[in-house]
Amino acid sequence: MKSIQARALAIATLILAASGNAWSQPAASAPSSMPGASAAEANAASPVSERKANRALRRQVYAAIGKHKEISAGNIGVTVKGGTVTLNGTVTDASQVNQVAEIAKGVAGVTSVTNKLTVQKPLGGM
């Protein structure tokens, strides 16, 4: 009877030691502490700083569009992910579709622009 209890205690101790060791492993989100991590992984931006950079670039694109008074930016949506800008929404004139894309391309930090703008005439306008 005592040998069974001793074995059970030894097995429980081994399981506890193994699970404690697993919990003390470095986090996968810390690439610099992992052996064999590439330089690109070590220099990768954290998700929080990447979101901040995307928001800042989005504001810069909106500001650049806003400098052009002939463009109604109220119906234009701008999304940014890693330097790639996507333009959604509507403009009032067909010439503004490409003009807005060119403005966005001219903003520092923009690597590419996906233009999904469409033309919608204002109500009552000809």
From TrEMBL:
Keywords: Signal. Residues 53-121 form the BON domain. InterPro entries: BON_dom, Lipoprotein_DolP, Transpt-assoc_nodulatn_dom_bac. SMART domains: BON. Residues 24-46 have a biased composition (Low complexity). The keyword Signal applies. Residues 1-24 form the signal peptide. This is BON domain-containing protein. It comes from Paraburkholderia podalyriae.
